[in-house]
Design goal:
Length: 195
């Protein structure tokens, strides 16, 4: 198993450290059965279009140790996430050369958008374990995205479908005024025109 260390051990501007792990969910928590769980890849892809749980666990597994920053101003440092790196997943999805953005669709309807090149950074992981324990339902079980270099609303829980697109589109919080880029180190909390 590959282990990646990407904790920065310092807190971005305007954030405070918590040792707890708060739950931040808009709306209700979806109930998912592993027997029916699938992860879909739609839009501009040339390879795999669907994985079931067993197939997902057969992919190469990795861990990353990384910080987590919520825009409501808490940060939790040195989280150990285990799952499949997006870089490894991309080898079987094979995004088309026209694919530049990805919409992440979740069970329950939440969405968030990211440029494909951000997802391809070395520490982006689709995680099913946190700090050596199976992810709890509230934190995104069975599978969530973790994008360490962006505010945590980009780290979608209960992921269901990754839609590969040739142009950007705003997700749930991005439509409601939160930053499209969401870099915590630059304190990109809101769209500049709204802040
Ligand atoms: N599906 C889904 N994913 C989500 C959210 C959500 O409401 N629904 N909230 C986001 C926000 S705002 C944050 S801060 C993190 C919180 O993750 P946690 O609840 O595991 O701490 O999840 C993100 N992913
Ligand atoms: Mo958040």
């Amino acid at each position: 198993m590959t282990a990646i260390e990407s904790t920065e051990n310092h807190v971005p501007p305007g954030q405070s450290i918590t040792r707890k792990f708060p739950v931040l969910t808009h709306g209700s928590t979806p109930q998912i059965s592993l027997n029916h769980w699938t992860l879909r890849f739609s839009g501009l892809v040339k390879g795999q279009v669907l994985l079931n749980w067993k197939q997902f666990l057969e992919l190469p597994q990795s861990t990353i140790t990384t910080d987590f920053h919520c825009v409501t101003q808490w940060s939790r440092l040195s989280n150990l996430w285990e799952g499949v790196l997006f870089q490894d997943l991309a080898k079987i999805i094979i995004p088309d050369s026209a694919a530049t953005f990805v919409m992440i669709h979740c069970y329950g309807g939440y969405t968030t958008n990211l440029p494909l090149n951000v997802l391809l950074e070395k520490d982006v992981i689709l995680a099913h374990k946190h700090d050596d324990k199976v992810l709890s339902l509230a934190h995104g079980w069975p599978l969530r995205l973790v994008v360490p270099n962006r505010y945590a609303w980009k780290s979608a829980k209960w992921i269901a479908n990754l839609e590969f697109m040739n142009q950007d589109q705003p997700g749930f919080w991005e439509q409601r005024g939160y930053s499209n880029n969401a870099d915590a180190r630059k304190e990109e909390r809101f769209w500049p025109e709204l802040s």
